[in-house]
Design a protein that fits this description.
It is a multi-pass membrane protein. InterPro entries: Cyt_c_oxase-like_su1_dom, Cyt_c_oxase-like_su1_sf, Cyt_C_Oxase_1, Cyt_c_Oxase_su1_BS. GO terms for molecular function: cytochrome-c oxidase activity; heme binding. With 472 residues, the protein is an all-alpha fold. It has a domain of 152 residues. The chain contains 17 helices and 2 strands. A hairpin with a 2-residue loop joins β1 and β2. α2 packs parallel to α4, α3 packs antiparallel against α4 and α5 runs parallel beside α8. The chain starts with 8 loop residues before the first helix and ends with a helix.
Amino acid sequence: MEKPNYNTDIVRSFINWGIIWGLVAILVGVIVSLQMVEPALNFPPYLTFGRLRPLHTNAGIYGWAVGTTFALFLYMVQRLCKTRLWSDKLARFQLWFFNATIITAAITLLLGYTTSKEYHELEWPVDIMVVILWVAFAINIIMTIIKRREEQMYISLWYMMASIVGVAILYIVDGAEVPVSLFKSYSAYAGTNDANVHWWFGHNAVAMVLTAPPLAMFYYVLPKSTGVPIYSHRMSIIAFWSLIFMYLWTGAHHLLWTPVPDWIQTLAMAFSVMLIAPSWGSVFNGYLSMRGQWHQMRENYLVKFLIIGITFYGLQTLQGPMQAIRSFSAFIHYTDWVPAHIHMGTMGWVSMIAFASIYYLVPRVYGRELYSVPLANLHFWLILIGQLIWTISLWIAGVLQAGMWTATNSDGSLAYSFMETMVEMYPYWWARVFGGIIFLIGVLVFIYNLVMTTRRGEISPASERAAVEGRA
């Protein structure tokens, strides 16, 4: 049987650019955390917290997470389908247009052009660029799947297709707007409809960008790196369809105690709690796959990232439904508990899986052994410790904030002023800075290890031959 000749060059390029934008996101994140404790570090008009914060989130989600998703999807789809990409030229166009879109997004956000919709701040010309980019990506992946040589559809392909279709629908519907100038538009929706549509997008963007792609990576890299199959393919399929169905109804839990109709809020609460089951279906599938293999947590650096990553996913999907309950939401909403939750997901779950996936890919697409396993282990501990420091400190800060905001005197007046609450936050915000710097150092170790792998890592004849022949 003729061996497929896979396209690994495009995978290398997306790995490189995804890492670059991830580094930008983390650097900006450290800067904005410093601005919270040292206001003098705001330099108007372009380098203020209000301009840098959306740059941080967009670079993290669309640069780092999506860039890594592009690299892994283009790698996995060829191997799971046992065929070369449908169009190398379209993939190359996707790479350059991806970078053009990210750069344009960064410039416009720093200039203050924004829709003010969280996770969808980009104005209409950049929205059009995002749509073109995603269509090019979707066509290439879907056409490759259609012409596949492998009959069975492995679970990773299901998550890949869900992400592709889901993002397309979500982004276009939420992005419906009326342009009034080159870089200004107004939403096509109004009032509670606008809020409801936006958070339908917002939470399902988490599903289709920050949940489905990492699960696709997890289900591919875990068996590849451990040498043992996934515990249950049937469980993975049931969890997939349950997850996709339930996620669609959860967006309004961001709008509890608002003018959005109560029945919509209650529906969102119910489905948010039910979402625990399919999420933990994947967690248990990962854990059960490690039966008799837990020693690899010590011996295999990739397994550390993967298992701790899926553990953070499980914790996220317990904490999230808890926040979706009205009584608890009334207590912690608008506090620092919420960014702690978000960062545990993006840096504990998504990034852990992305780091493992890139570590898995780089030796295979460059034909070299990893330069240093001890450095990879150091990277793991630095990002784990850094992430825990800022997450736990912000959890505590959030509970303290909520308690002070709701404390009242015997006459019903507020016991604390807003400024008194702010003063109490400073130690926790400094802890966030410290944790962020540790995480940043870990990422720099990661980048150094990869650069040295491509330049000085020992040549692996088996990996090099497999890359050429399409068996890596």
